[in-house]
Known about the structure:
Two copies of one chain form a homodimer. By secondary structure, chain A is mostly helical. Chain A has nine helices and no strands. In chain A, helix 5 (about 85-100) packs across helix 7 (about 120-140). The longest helix of chain A is centred in the middle third of the chain and has 25 residues, at about 55-80. Chain A starts with 10 loop residues before the first helix and ends in a 7-residue tail after the last helix. The model of chain A is unreliable at about 1-5 (pLDDT under 50). Chains A and B meet through helix 6, helix 7, helix 8 and helix 9 of A and helix 6, helix 7, helix 8 and helix 9 of B.
Amino acid sequence: MATTAQPKRSPRERLLAAANELFYHEGVQTVGIDRIIEHAGVAKASLYNTFGSKEELVRAYLESRHGKTMDRLTRAVAARTEPRARLLAVFDSQTDLFARPDFHGCAFASASAEAPRGGLVEQATDTYRGEIRALLAELAAQAGVPDPAALARQLHLVYDGATLSARMDRDPSVAAVSRATAEALLDAALPPARRD
Amino acid sequence: MATTAQPKRSPRERLLAAANELFYHEGVQTVGIDRIIEHAGVAKASLYNTFGSKEELVRAYLESRHGKTMDRLTRAVAARTEPRARLLAVFDSQTDLFARPDFHGCAFASASAEAPRGGLVEQATDTYRGEIRALLAELAAQAGVPDPAALARQLHLVYDGATLSARMDRDPSVAAVSRATAEALLDAALPPARRD
DNA sequence: TGATCCGCAGACAGACCTGTCTACTGTGAG
DNA sequence: CTCACAGTAGACAGGTCTGTCTGCGGATCA
Lengths: 196, 196
């Protein structure tokens, strides 16, 4: 069977799709198991056979978002060749992201807001943030910045702040501010000789 | 153990203190009414006579944090005279804030993450963010920036991002990055003649 | 044909949630 | 003293939560 769009996806896939929709839009704490299985059209036993607990389902949900976000970013970066444009592509991509009708902020920021410390949510969040930071540092290095790690920390602030503002102010236009801010910081971090 | 036995504070005060402690550290959704009244040493009827509902208690909790934060910022600003230093004082103050052992991110960001849209939490959040934005714009104007509103939006990004990173990465040192980033953006926004 | 397995449907347990209500206690005003 | 009233203690209602368990239908394979 080479068909990718089967009429019946596996319970695991349907559960993850339901989690992606309900957890992301309404919150991990506020959405209960019953609504997940109803939305997925799956038996409760299937959920507990597949994931074992709600917390593990949340972890799987966050991991799936982690993968999607990294795909989105690496695709945006890969579409450019000039190192400076590749770095700024991360912030360009926020324009479309924030404008999506189903955008509702950073899934990790929201999920970790009320998650117990030291749990699976915190683990998934740490992994995610480490990868974002590494991507920014790598692109900063390729752009010829003397201290890529330092610029990556600054840009990570801007990236986070923009995502948070876009949700809390319900204002997608903050993406333009974010992009301009990133550019200003990149310019300030470049040695004068390299600015062109 | 309920931490009371002080000179009799009113039920309202004790409830707000309990809310400030429990809601802030563990989350608005995860902490129930029973834990609030137990921690406050107050009868359940007193809570409902005073606030009417949990949502109203949450609103009062957020308003009290709003007041405390604005006090902290205006005090930090008032301690300086030079306009540039007054603007940067907002970011200087993050150093102490993030280092506090009870720091746990922005109460508004956490509370709004899973709050229903259009509710009291959203209202309180909008008001809070508007005031922060206005403060930044006013300080930017006093610093002689040509477009204070534009710089205020950038600095708000940085302020938000730093608060979020400090919580999610459990890393208070991000305050220094935030301060340096704000300074770089301020410099970039000033007309060359005014930079000194 | 029969055996095995996957998944669905839903009852159930035990805990917790918000919010209401009754009954009691201490205190201050007139 | 009497009365009003603010506050306490806690039962209660009605619902939701996570997680377990049983029973059943359909598919697959020897």
